[in-house]
Amino acid sequence: NRFVQEQIAGDLMPGANQETCTATGFLSLGAKVLAEPDVEKLVMDTIDEQIDTLGKAFMGLSLGCARCHDHKFDP
Questions:
Q1: Do the beta carbons of residue 63 and residue 52 sit within 8 Å?
Q2: pLDDT tier, 73 (very low <50, low <70, confident <90, very high otherwise)
Q3: Is the separation of the CB atoms in 25 and 2 below 8 Å?
Q4: How far apart are alpha carbons 70 and 20 in whole angstroms?
């Protein structure tokens, strides 16, 4: 339980330290297009990537497609 909390919000936990902040690096996994000129789109793409990473890791489902459409089940 503590491991998962640190992976998702280690920097926001009471008594956060270098180890708990480093654990949140898990959320930065994946490809990034940092040359995106639209800052708002860059922020939304980053959040979308984090949600997809969490879905794959903890639920075994890809959630990135939910940004545009619904699925009855993961193909």
A1: yes
A2: low
A3: no
A4: 34
